[in-house]
Amino acid sequence: MHVHIQAEEASFERTLSHIVPLFYEEVKTSYGNGDHAAADMRIRLEVETVGTTITSAAKLTDHTRSVELFARHERLAAAQASPEDRRKSIKQAMCFVLLDVLQQHTGIVQPWGILTGIRPTKLLHERLRSGVPAERAHKELREDYLIADEKVALMQRIVDSQLGALPDLYRLRNEVSIYIGIPFCPTKCAYCTFPAYDINGRQGSVSGFLAGLHYEMREIGQWLKRNGIGITTIYFGGGTPTSITAEEMDELYSLMYDHFPDVRNVREITVEAGRPDTITPEKLAVLSKWGIDRISINPQSYTQETLDLIGRHHTVQETIDKFELARNSGMENINMDLIIGLPGEGEAEFDHTLSETAKLMPESLTVHTLSFKRASEMTQHRGKGKYKVAGRNEINRMMRRAVEWTDQFGYVPYYLYRQKNILGNLENVGYAKPGIESLYNILIIEEMQSIIGLGCGASSKWVDPVTGVISRLANPKEPKAYNETYLAYTDAKIEALNKLFRIQPQLETTGV
Ligand code: SF4
Q1: Contact (Cβ atoms closer than 8 angstroms) between residue 273 and residue 295
Q2: What pLDDT does 382 receive?
Q3: Strand-pair category, 412-418 with 364-369
Q4: Which of 295, 397, 461, 488 is deepest in the core (most CB within 10 A)?
Q5: Does residue 425 come out as left (phi exceeding 0), alpha (psi in the -120 to 50 range) or beta?
Q6: Ligand 1 pocket mutation pick from 192, 193, 198, 298 by most atoms within 8 angstroms of CB
Q7: At what angle do helices 392-408 and 347-360 cross, to 10 degrees?
Q8: Which residues does the UniProt record annotate as the domain Radical SAM core (predicted)?
Q9: 34: which DSSP letter?
Q10: Pairing mode, if any, of strands 41-50 and 2-6?
Q11: What is the pLDDT of residue 25?
Q12: Beta-bridge partners for 68
């Protein structure tokens, strides 16, 4: 379907165009002042300001069904409003009427209103951090974005969990967290969008990659030590960081202790051991030797046919066995990732996954939601049409089921991010037993401090400690490209860190 938004104001294009895909699965959106004759649907947006009164109006014409729908909204801008605030009010007024006509057209009510950003809880943190009382902050979220009460309550629950886990959350900008990307997996899963390469494949050798990673860790670790910058959390992700051998893991963690500052006081070190087929007693012994206190073992589903279909190459029983093995080796903080909406899976399969999870009781659970478009794409090369893919309503019911189940078993939601521009308002939610929330997940989702990314596909996110302005620098995804460029990327990171923490490079390099 082609939807054309006809509006005079060019600078609102991005915001307005992002609202349309929340309602339709396959949609092309065009935007402009002209009357796009080829479009299936046209939405004309108008806005008028008289004094402090802003009036917006929308007319939707669906040419395929000869339907016309209308919406109108009026609001008062504060008399003292700055030009910037006034523009924001005009933009919101246009979003409101656009949302209104699209809701009328589809019958879909958007619980997040006009909000299209992926980190809704950031909005609440921003207000609370600047001293706005909670009740007023909630009112603003409801009125400015049309967020439903149920979602505002969820945001407050998440913010409460986060501040419980990290009471100094708003004061951590002078520290950093570290993400280390190990880009190998035993095999590549069909739905994978991460930098993950078959460990036996041809994308560069593991030892070559590790040599580059060791270099980055040494250089960055020494920079942190020289400049007195502490580390809050360290996260090994990928790929599957337990794909490498126990000896390689041992060497890596030993190097981390040698070169990073004060590792014994880092608040949390996580190693993703996502694929159960990579977990061995030797590797668990290495994790415990180095005090790694949190791992992730990811079943995704407890239906064998699904695991086979998505190319996980391990059995359901193996997940259960490796979970028990990790528990018996003393691992007391285990996360599990589940996915709603995998191909071939509906409510019955998800219920089965939940009841199997209840037998293991991991400390935390991350529930991802796969869009039906993505699920359909996954089956394209594997028996097209043979596998059912859950629709929007069924996905919503499964998401609700996850909420009820986690409530019933004493988990609290502690982070959430929304998928961008996608029908169904899909969310990924992290749940944890109170007090065992992943600190790294909170810090990265809420963008509360800089995360230094080392290794393949690792993205560094710089959060300016003074202004909060965010910028990024991503390492290459492929091991081969990484091996060729890690020296330059390490230099670029040190330069960025010097700037971020206002350190004079000449003084920094001479250690003065
Ligand atoms: S285990 Fe995870 S990172 Fe590895 S291929 Fe599968 S989805 Fe990708």
Answers
A1: yes
A2: 57
A3: unpaired
A4: 295
A5: left
A6: 192
A7: 20
A8: 170-408
A9: S
A10: parallel
A11: 83
A12: 61
Cα–Cα distance for residue pair 319/305, rounded to 1 Å: 14
427-432 and 412-418 beta bridge pairing: antiparallel
Give residue for tokens 């051991």: 273
Output phi, psi for 210, to 5 deg.
-65, -35
Strands 41-50 and 53-62: antiparallel
pLDDT value of position 114: 94
Tokens 């790294």 correspond to: 440
From 182, 191, 194, give the residue whose CB has the most ligand 1 atoms within 8 Å, as the site to mutate: 194
State the 10-residue block means of pLDDT for the chain, 512 residues long. Answer: 90 92 90 83 94 94 93 89 90 96 95 92 96 97 95 97 97 97 89 84 81 97 97 96 96 98 97 93 96 92 91 90 95 95 92 96 94 71 67 91 97 93 84 96 96 97 95 94 96 97 71 45
Residue 437, classed as helix, strand or coil, is coil
182, 197, 240: residue to mutate for ligand 1 pocket, most atoms within 8 A of CB: 240
Which pLDDT value is given to residue 512?
A: 42
Q: What is the 3-state secondary structure (H, E, C) of 4-44?
A: EEECCCHHHHHHHHHHHHHCCCCCEEEEECCCCCCCCEEEE
Q: Side chain identity at 193, as an amino acid letter?
A: T
Place of tokens 């900008």: 173
Find the helix or strand (DSSP H, E) in which 206 lies: helix 206-227
Task: List, in order of start, the domains of the chain with CATH numbers.
Answer: 1-109 (3.90.950.10), 112-153 (no CATH), 299-332+334-435 (3.30.750.200)
Q: Give me the amino acid identity at 285.
A: A
Q: Which residues line ligand 1 (CB under 6 A)?
A: 185, 188-189, 192, 194, 196, 238-240, 274-275
Tell me how many degrees the CA angle 286-287-293 measures, rounded to the nearest 5. 160
The dihedral region occupied by 495, where left means phi > 0, alpha psi between -120 and 50, and beta the remainder, is alpha
Nearest Cα residue to atom 5 of ligand 1: 188
Residues facing 454 on adjacent strands: 180
For residue 169 the two structure tokens come to: 């959350």
Element (H, E) at 184: strand 184-185
Closest protein CA for atom 3 of ligand 1 = 239
At 194 the pLDDT is 85
Residue at token pair 């407890």: 302
Residue 282 tokens, joined: 């030797």
What is the structure's pLDDT at 379? 66
Query: Residue 131 and residue 455: Cα distance in Å, rounded?
Result: 39
Q: Rounded to whole angstroms, how far apart are CA atoms 93 and 95?
A: 5
